[in-house]
Q: What sequence folds into this?
C-alpha cells in the first residue's frame, strides 16, 4: 500500500508537462497518432487523480491537443473542475481550456453558471477578468440570461480593467439574450463618457457594432458621438465612430452635412492610413446618399462634390502607392464610387489599366471590375485590345476565364451600347475561341448568336466567319482540354444554317458540317448540325436549280444521303430523330429530282420565315382578348361530394389537408352572371387593369416595324484575313484611320465655315479631344429590338409584381381629403373597458376577461363599418385605409417613478403616503379606486411590463387611427381623477428620427402642443395628436411629458409617460379569401419565420380571438386545431400566419415580405400569451 | 473580428481564437481551407483576400502567418494594425519572440491575446496597459514561462525573431 503511494508520487514527478508533450510530438513524427493516443491515455489517468495541479497540467495539454484537431469533448467536466479551482494559476488554465473547447452544445456549461457568478464577484480583479474573457467565448443564451445582471453591475466596477471587459462582453450578451439590451443600454451609454479611455473606447466599440446592424435606434446618440469624434485623438476609437456615422448618415442626411468638415480635416491631417481609408469610405458612402432622395441645396452639393473629388484624389494616391495593400484598397474603394459616379473614375483610366499589369492577381481582378464601368465608345476597342493581350499572357485558367467573361461583359453591356463596329466584335469573339481550356464556350456562343440575330447588317460577315470556324472545327475538337470551347460550334452551325443565303461557298460548309468527325461532338451540337445541314441543303438546292445543270443538285442530295446515316445511328435521341427524318425527306427529294421535278421552292418553304428575338416579358404582355374572361368557370365547378376529395395545395409545408372548395358550389348560375357583370364593372373602373382599348392598338401600329428599318449593306472592303496580325487589331487600326478621316473632313468643313471670321478660337477647337458624340458608327448598325406581341401595352410596370404590396399604395396623396375619407372619431370605449374592473373592485382575472370581450366585440362592429367605408372610397378611385391603433403608456419603472416620488414628497403628505403604498404594492388591488384602475391597466392585454405611470389624477388612454402609410393619429383620453381643477395642459413628445409629432407650422421641434381644454375633477376628455412615422417594421417607444397646472395650488406639475407603438398596432385587420391567401403564399416573395408557444391553456377559438383582437389578424380558414390568419400593415406588408395547436403547445408559422416586422409581430404575439 | 489563426509556413496551426460560435467540424474545415489559400499566395501579393462572405487579412512574420477574418464593413488596415500590435505585445513579453516561444508557451500567447482582444474587439489600445495586466496576473501564477534556451534541439528557422524580420521587410 505504502509502496503504491510512493510510486504514485514518483510517477507524478515524471508526468509530462506541456513542453514535454510538444517535444514528444515532434520526436514521433512517424507515428504521431499512436504517440498522441498514449498521451491521451496518460492524460485520462492524470485526470482521475485528486491533485488539482496534475489535473490542470492535463487540461493544459488537452487544450494543445484540441488545437491539433483532436476531440477533447470527453474532458469537459474536468475542465469545469479546473475552472473552479481557487488558485488563479489553475483557474486561468481551466478558463482557457473552456474558451477553446466549449461551445453552445456542451452540456456541462449549465454547471458553470454559479462558478462563473462567484468568479465575477471575486475580490481579485484577475479572477473576474479571466471569467469575463472565458465567458466571451462560450456564452450561451442561458448563461447570458442568468449572468446579464452580474455583468451589468460590473460595468460600474471601481477598476477600469473590469469595467472595460464588462462593457465589451455585454455585446456578446446582447446577441445571446436580446432582452438585456434595453435595461443595460442606459449604463452602456454612460460608459461613453467614462473617465478611463479604455472603457470609453470599449463602449464606443459595442455601440458601433450594435448600430451597424440597426442604425435607426441609435440616431439619438449622434450628438454625443459627434462630440467624441471632435475630441478624441485615438485612431482606434475614431475609426469606430466614423464607421458608426457611416451607418447613421443614410438615415439622417443632415448628419452628412455636419460631418463633412471634421472628416475633411481628418483626411487632410491624419498620417494613419487606416483612418484615412475609413474617412474616405464614409465620405463615398455619404455622398452616394446625399445625391439621391434628400437633395441638399446646390451650394452644399457643390461643396460635397469637391470633398468627394478630394477622396478620389486620395484614392489615386493610394493606388499609386508601392504598397500592394493600399493599392488593393484604393481600387476597392474606387469600385464603390464607380456605381454612383462613373465619370470620376473614368479620369483615372490610365492608372487602372496599369494595375492590370500588376503581379498580384487580386489587384488585377479588382482593376478588371473597375474597367467594366469605364468604357465608352471611344476607348472600348483600346481597352479590349489591352485585355486581349492579357488573355494571351495569362497563365492560370481562372484568371483567363475571368478576363474572358469581363471582355464579353464590357462589350455587351447596355445592349452593346459602346460597340461602334460589330465586325470588330465578331472578330474578337472568334479570337477568343482560340483560348485553351476555357469553360466559357457557351458564353461566346450565345454572344455570337445574339449579335448575328440582332444586328442584321453584320450577318454577311458573321456567316463568313462562322463558316471558317466550321471548316476549322478540328482545331477545337481535337484536344480534350478544349471541350468547353466546342459550344461555339453550336452557334457557328446555327448561324451558317439560318443565314445560309449569305454563304459564299455553301457546298464547302455543308461538307464541313457532315464530316464524320462531327459525330464526336456532344449530342446537342450534333443535333444543331443536322438540322442546319438541312437548311443549307435547301438553300443549295435553290441555287443549283437555277442553273441549267441539274446534276449539281442531285449530287448535293447524294451527299446528304451518304452522310446522314452516320447520324441516324447516333446514340443521342435528338440527333437520331432529326437525322432519320431529314434522311427520309432527302430520299424523297432525290426521287422527285430524278423525275426532273423542281423541288427547291417547297424545300425552302420548310424553313421559311425569320426567327426574331422575343423580349423576355413578351408572354406576359399578350393582352386578353375582349370577351375572354379568364376568371370564369369553363365547366361547372365539381359537386360538393367530389370536392371532398380534392386537396387544395398545402400552404405551409407541414400543413394537414383541408377542405375548402365547398363555398363555390353554392353559387348558382344567376349569381355567377351577376358577379361577372360586377367584375367587369370593377375592371372598367380599375386603373391598374389593362384594358384592350383601341387606342393602344393604334400606338403599336404607328411604331415602325422591323422591316422598315433601313439596313445598310456593308461594303466588305476589309480583307478577311490579315497575315501576321490578329484580325481584331486590323479593325482597331482601320477604325482609327476612319475616325481620323472623319475628323479631317469635319475640320475641313469647319474651316470652310470659318473662312470669313477666322480667329484664334478655331485652332483651340481643332486640337481638342474628340468627344463621345463625335464618333459615328462605322456603318449604320441597327440592333433589332426584341419582339413584343401585338397589342402589347407600352407600360412601365413590367417589373412590378402583382403581389407587390406597394402597388396598392400607389395613390395620389396630394388630393384633398373627401368627407367620406375622413378618419372616424372614436368613442371612449377603451376608457369604459378600463373602468369596469375598477367599479367591480374584483379579483383580476375574471374582471379583465370581461372588458376584453366587450371591446373586441365593439371592435368587430367598428370594423364592419369601416369595410363599408372602404368600398365607397375605392369606387371614388381614391382608396384610403383606416384602422384603430391601440397604444399604451407605461412608465419607466425606475426613473420616472422615483422622480415622481421626490416631487410628491415636496408637495403634500397625504399624497406621499399614497405614493409609497402604491410603490410597494402596485401589483395588488387593495380596494382603493386608483390602484385597481392601475391594475386594470396592467391587466389590459399589453405585453410589456406596464407599471403605474400616472399620478393619481390623470388617466391617459391612447388609441390611434391610421391613415396612409406614414401618419398615425393618436387619441389621448385625459381623465382627471383628483379633486382639483386642471388647466394649461401641454402635451409633448420627444421626437425620434423615425417618428415625429406633427406640430403646427412655426413652432419649434421641441415645443409642446397645448391641450385644447381644461379638466374639472372627475371629467375626461379626448385630444388627438398626429405622428409621422417613417418605418413601421420596428416597435417604437416615444418618451413624452404632460405638463399642467393645478388650479388651486397653481403649481406646475409634470407627468412623464411613454408611448409604445407596437408592431401589431401597425397591422390592420384585413379580410382575405383563402384562394387569394394561397396565391400570396405561393408567390414566394414572403420570408418565413416561426414561433412556438408552450403551456397555453385555453380553447383554440379563444386563442384565435386573442390573436385577432390584440394583433389585428383575421382568420382566413380554420380546420380543427389549425387555422390560417392574415393581416396587413398600414404600409401594405402582408402578414400570414398558420396557427396549429396540440395539447398546450401552439406553433405559429408565419410569412411576411418584411422579415423585421414579422419578427417583431411574432415576439409580440409570444408576449401576449406568455402573460396569460 | 470573426476569428484569428496563427500557423506556420508548413501549415501547422499554432494558435486559434474563434469569436463566433462554430462547430469543431466547421472550424477545422475553415482552418484547412484558409491555410491552403494563404500559403498558396505569393510573397509580394497584398494582404487581403475575399473569402466566402468575409474578408481575410493576413500577414507573415518570419516563419509565422497571422490571419484574421473580418466582416464586409470592417477596416482591413486597422486589422493589420491589430495583428502587428499583437506581435509587438508578444515580442515585448517574451523578449524578441520567435515561433518556438509561441509553441511552448501557447497558453501565454492566449492570455496576451485575451488581454488585447475580447470578443473580437480591441479591448486595450495601450501596449503598456496590456503588458502590465499580464505581468500582474503572472505574479499570481506560480509557473514561469519557458525561454528560448530551453529548446536547443530545434532548427533555427523556428527561432527567427518575428519582429525583426518584419522591420527589414518594411524597409524594403
A:
Amino acid at each position: 500500500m505504502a509502496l503504491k503511494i510512493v510510486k504514485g508520487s514518483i510517477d507524478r514527478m515524471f508526468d509530462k508537462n506541456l513542453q514535454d508533450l510538444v517535444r514528444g510530438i515532434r520526436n514521433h513524427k512517424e507515428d504521431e497518432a499512436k504517440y498522441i493516443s498514449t498521451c491521451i491515455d496518460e492524460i485520462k489517468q492524470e485526470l482521475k487523480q485528486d491533485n488539482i495541479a496534475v489535473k490542470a497540467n492535463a487540461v493544459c495539454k488537452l487544450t494543445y491537443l484540441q488545437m491539433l484537431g483532436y476531440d477533447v469533448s470527453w474532458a469537459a467536466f474536468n475542465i469545469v473542475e479546473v475552472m473552479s479551482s481557487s488558485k488563479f494559476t489553475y483557474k486561468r488554465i481551466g478558463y482557457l481550456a473552456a474558451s477553446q473547447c466549449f461551445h453552445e452544445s456542451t452540456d456541462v456549461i449549465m454547471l458553470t453558471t454559479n462558478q462563473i457568478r462567484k468568479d465575477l464577484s471575486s475580490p481579485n480583479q484577475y479572477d473576474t477578468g479571466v471569467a469575463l474573457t472565458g465567458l466571451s467565448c462560450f456564452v450561451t443564451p442561458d448563461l447570458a440570461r442568468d449572468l446579464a445582471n452580474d455583468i451589468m453591475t460590473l460595468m460600474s466596477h471601481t477598476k477600469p480593467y473590469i469595467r472595460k471587459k464588462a462593457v465589451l462582453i455585454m455585446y456578446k450578451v446582447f446577441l445571446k439574450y436580446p432582452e438585456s439590451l434595453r435595461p443595460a443600454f442606459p449604463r452602456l451609454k454612460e460608459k461613453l463618457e467614462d473617465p478611463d479611455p479604455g472603457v470609453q473606447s470599449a463602449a464606443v466599440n459595442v455601440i458601433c457594432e450594435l448600430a451597424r446592424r440597426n442604425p435607426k435606434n441609435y440616431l439619438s446618440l449622434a450628438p454625443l458621438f459627434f462630440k467624441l469624434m471632435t475630441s478624441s485623438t485615438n485612431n482606434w476609437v475614431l475609426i469606430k465612430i466614423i464607421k458608426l456615422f457611416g451607418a447613421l448618415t443614410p438615415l439622417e442626411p443632415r448628419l452628412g452635412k455636419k460631418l463633412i468638415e471634421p472628416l475633411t480635416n481628418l483626411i487632410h491631417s491624419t498620417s494613419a492610413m487606416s483612418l484615412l481609408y475609413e474617412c474616405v469610405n464614409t465620405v463615398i458612402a455619404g455622398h452616394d446618399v446625399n445625391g439621391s432622395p434628400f437633395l441638399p441645396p446646390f451650394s452644399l452639393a457643390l461643396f460635397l462634390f469637391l470633398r468627394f473629388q478630394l477622396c478620389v484624389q486620395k484614392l489615386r494616391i493610394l493606388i499609386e502607392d508601392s504598397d500592394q495593400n493600399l493599392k488593393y484598397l484604393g481600387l476597392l474603394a474606387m469600385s464603390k464610387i464607380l456605381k454612383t459616379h462613373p465619370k470620376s473614375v473614368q479620369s483615372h483610366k490610365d492608372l487602372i489599366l496599369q494595375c492590370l499589369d500588376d503581379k498580384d492577381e487580386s489587384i488585377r481582378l479588382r482593376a478588371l471590375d473597375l474597367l467594366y464601368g469605364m468604357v465608352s465608345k471611344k476607348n472600348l476597342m483600346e481597352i479590349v485590345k489591352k485585355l486581349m493581350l492579357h488573355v494571351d499572357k495569362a497563365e492560370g485558367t481562372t484568371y483567363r476565364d475571368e478576363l474572358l467573361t469581363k471582355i464579353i461583359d464590357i462589350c455587351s453591356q447596355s445592349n452593346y451600347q459602346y460597340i461602334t463596329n460589330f465586325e470588330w466584335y465578331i472578330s474578337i469573339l472568334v479570337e477568343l475561341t482560340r483560348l485553351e481550356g476555357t469553360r466559357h464556350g457557351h458564353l461566346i456562343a450565345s454572344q455570337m448568336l445574339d449579335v448575328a440575330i440582332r444586328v442584321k447588317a453584320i450577318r454577311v460577315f458573321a456567316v463568313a466567319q462562322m463558316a471558317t470556324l466550321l471548316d476549322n472545327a478540328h482545331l477545337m475538337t481535337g484536344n480534350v482540354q478544349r471541350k468547353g470551347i466546342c459550344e461555339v460550334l453550336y452557334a457557328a452551325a446555327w448561324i451558317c444554317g439560318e443565314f445560309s443565303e449569305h454563304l459564299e461557298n455553301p457546298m464547302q460548309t455543308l461538307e464541313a458540317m457532315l464530316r464524320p468527325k462531327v459525330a464526336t461532338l456532344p449530342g446537342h451540337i450534333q443535333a444543331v448540325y443536322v438540322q442546319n445541314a438541312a437548311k443549307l441543303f435547301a438553300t443549295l438546292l435553290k441555287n443549283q436549280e437555277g442553273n441549267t445543270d441539274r446534276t449539281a443538285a442531285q449530287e448535293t442530295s447524294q451527299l446528304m444521303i451518304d452522310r446522314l446515316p452516320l447520324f441516324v445511328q447516333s446514340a443521342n435521341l435528338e440527333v437520331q430523330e432529326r437525322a432519320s427524318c431529314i434522311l427520309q425527306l432527302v430520299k424523297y427529294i432525290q426521287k422527285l429530282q430524278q423525275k426532273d421535278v423542281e423541288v427547291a421552292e417547297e424545300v425552302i418553304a420548310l424553313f421559311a420565315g425569320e426567327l426574331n428575338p422575343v423580349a423576355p416579358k413578351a408572354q406576359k404582355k399578350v393582352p386578353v382578348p375582349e370577351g375572354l374572361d379568364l376568371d370564369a368557370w369553363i365547366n361547372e365547378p365539381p359537386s360538393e361530394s367530389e370536392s371532398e376529395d380534392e386537396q387544395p395545395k398545402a400552404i405551409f409545408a407541414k400543413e394537414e389537408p383541408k377542405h375548402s372548395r365547398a363555398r363555390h358550389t353554392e353559387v348558382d348560375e344567376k349569381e355567377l352572371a351577376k358577379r361577372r357583370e360586377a367584375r367587369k364593372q370593377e375592371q372598367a373602373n380599375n386603373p391598374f387593369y389593362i384594358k384592350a382599348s383601341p387606342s393602344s392598338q393604334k400606338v403599336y401600329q404607328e411604331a415602325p416595324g422591323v422591316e422598315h428599318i433601313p439596313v445598310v449593306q456593308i461594303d466588305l472592303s476589309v480583307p478577311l484575313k490579315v497575315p501576321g496580325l490578329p484580325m481584331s487589331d486590323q479593325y482597331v487600326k482601320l477604325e482609327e484611320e476612319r475616325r481620323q478621316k472623319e475628323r479631317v473632313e469635319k475640320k475641313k468643313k469647319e474651316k470652310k465655315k470659318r473662312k470669313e471670321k477666322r480667329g484664334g478660337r478655331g485652332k483651340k477647337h481643332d486640337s481638342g479631344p474628340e468627344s463621345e458624340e463625335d464618333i459615328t458608327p462605322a456603318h449604320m448598325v441597327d440592333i433589332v429590338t426584341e419582339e413584343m406581341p401585338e397589342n402589347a401595352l407600352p407600360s412601365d410596370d413590367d417589373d412590378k409584381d402583382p403581389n407587390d404590396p406597394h402597388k396598392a399604395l400607389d395613390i395620389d396623396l396630394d388630393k384633398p381629403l373627401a368627407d367620406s375619407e375622413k378618419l372616424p372619431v372614436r368613442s371612449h370605449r377603451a376608457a369604459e373597458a378600463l373602468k369596469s374592473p375598477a367599479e367591480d373592485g374584483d379579483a383580476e382575472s375574471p374582471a379583465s376577461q370581461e372588458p376584453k370581450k366587450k371591446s373586441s366585440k365593439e371592435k368587430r362592429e367598428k370594423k364592419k363599418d369601416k369595410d363599408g367605408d372602404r368600398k365607397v372610397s375605392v369606387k371614388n378611385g381614391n382608396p384610403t385605409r383606416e384602422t384603430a391603433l391601440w397604444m399604451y403608456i407605461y412608465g419607466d419603472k425606475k426613473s420616472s417613478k422615483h422622480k415622481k416620488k421626490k416631487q410628491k414628497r415636496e408637495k403634500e403628505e397625504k399624497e406621499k403616503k399614497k405614493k409609497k403604498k402604491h410603490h410597494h404594492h402596485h401589483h395588488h388591488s387593495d380596494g382603493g379606486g386608483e390602484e385597481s384602475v392601475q391594475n386594470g391597466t396592467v391587466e389590459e392585454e399589453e405585453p410589456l411590463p406596464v407599471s403605474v405611470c400616472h399620478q393619481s389624477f390623470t388617466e391617459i388612454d391612447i388609441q390611434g387611427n391610421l391613415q396612409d402609410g406614414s401618419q398615425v393619429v393618436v387619441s389621448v383620453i385625459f381623465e382627471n381623477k383628483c379633486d382639483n381643477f386642471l388647466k394649461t395642459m401641454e402635451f409633448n413628445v420627444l421626437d425620434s428620427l423615425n417618428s415625429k409629432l406633427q406640430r403646427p407650422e412655426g413652432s419649434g421641434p421641441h415645443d409642446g402642443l397645448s391641450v385644447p381644454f381644461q379638466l374639472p375633477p372627475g371629467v375626461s376628455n379626448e385630444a388627438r395628436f398626429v405622428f409621422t412615422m417613417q418605418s413601421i417594421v420596428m416597435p417604437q417607444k416615444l418618451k413624452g411629458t404632460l405638463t399642467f397646472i393645478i388650479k388651486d395650488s397653481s403649481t406646475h406639475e409634470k407627468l412623464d409617460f411613454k408611448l409604445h407603438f407596437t408592431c401589431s398596432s401597425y397591422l390592420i385587420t384585413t379580410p382575405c379569401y383563402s384562394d387569394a391567401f394561397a396565391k400570396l403564399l405561393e408567390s414566394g416573395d414572403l420570408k418565413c419565420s416561426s414561433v412556438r408557444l408552450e403551456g397555453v391553456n385555453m380553447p383554440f377559438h379563444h386563442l384565435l380571438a386573442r390573436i385577432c383582437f390584440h394583433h389585428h389578424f383575421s382568420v382566413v380558414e380554420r380546420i380543427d386545431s389549425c387555422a390560417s390568419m392574415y393581416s396587413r400593415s398600414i404600409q401594405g406588408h402582408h402578414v400570414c400566419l398558420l396557427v396549429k395547436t396540440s395539447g398546450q403547445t401552439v406553433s405559429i408559422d408565419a410569412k411576411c415580405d418584411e422579415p423585421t416586422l414579422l419578427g417583431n409581430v411574432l415576439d409580440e404575439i409570444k408576449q401576449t400569451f406568455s402573460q396569460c | 473580428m470573426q476569428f484569428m489563426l496563427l500557423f506556420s509556413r508548413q501549415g501547422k496551426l499554432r494558435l486559434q481564437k474563434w469569436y463566433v460560435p462554430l462547430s469543431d467540424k466547421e472550424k477545422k474545415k475553415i482552418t484547412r481551407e484558409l491555410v491552403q489559400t494563404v500559403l498558396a499566395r505569393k510573397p509580394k501579393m497584398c494582404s487581403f483576400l475575399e473569402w466566402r462572405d468575409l474578408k481575410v487579412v493576413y500577414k507573415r512574420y518570419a516563419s509565422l502567418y497571422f490571419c484574421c477574418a473580418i466582416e464586409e464593413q470592417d477596416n482591413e488596415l486597422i486589422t493589420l494594425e491589430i495583428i502587428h500590435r499583437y506581435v509587438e505585445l508578444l515580442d515585448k513579453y517574451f523578449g524578441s519572440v520567435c515561433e518556438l516561444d509561441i509553441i511552448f508557451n501557447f497558453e501565454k500567447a492566449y492570455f496576451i491575446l485575451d488581454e488585447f482582444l475580447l470578443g473580437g474587439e480591441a479591448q486595450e489600445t495601450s501596449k503598456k496597459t496590456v503588458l502590465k495586466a499580464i505581468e500582474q496576473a503572472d505574479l499570481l501564477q506560480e509557473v514561469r514561462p519557458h525561454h528560448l534556451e530551453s529548446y536547443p534541439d530545434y532548427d533555427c528557422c523556428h527561432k527567427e525573431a518575428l519582429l525583426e524580420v518584419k522591420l527589414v521587410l518594411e524597409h524594403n
Q: What stands out?
A: Residues 887 and 958 of chain A are 5 Å apart (CA to CA). Chain A has a mean pLDDT of 71.
